[in-house]
Amino acid sequence: MPIEQKIPVSGKSNILAFAGSTRQDSYNKKLVSIAVAAAQAAGGQVTYLDLREFPLPLYDGDLEEQQGLPENVLKLKKIFIAHQGLLISSPEYNSSISGVLKNTIDWISRSTPDSNEEPLVCFNNKIAVLMSASPGALGGLRGLVTLRSILGNIKVLVLPDQVAVAKAHEAFGSDGRLKNSKQQLTVEALALKLLEYLRKFNL
Fold this sequence. Notes:
By secondary structure, the protein is an alpha/beta fold.
């Protein structure tokens, strides 16, 4: 996939792109890579994040109190803080979002101990675009409803445009592009819409 994987830990970059899946051949990783390529082609700075590289325990308040935030949580917080836009492709699990995505959000929403950071610093004033891919007929659409609600409640501005790719096991060509050219253009347009908003607000 034509994705820039260098992750800045300081300074600012435009967009952080990731899928809510750790599966190597995830349809949602394929989908978000299309948006990444479009944003990069339009001059956007994009960082691709693979959640598989940042394994986390299930969120546990007792664990947090006794041991503090895990090392990978601290790394992820730095990455999120360094970006203003979020490109998220979310699989649907039982009409909701994946456990790994929800767990990541829960952990990085926690404040770093002994810091003066503002609440929800990883999410506040971010702008997000959502997409999904699923073998099912709705393309993961029901999970996006849940994700939109979660992000909206933690101060993320979620743009109304989104895309859900149904029958994902048949949707991608060997080159990683969507076989349906209209869907391909829709995904690319979402990435450009996010860039437009970031530039409009000088983020």
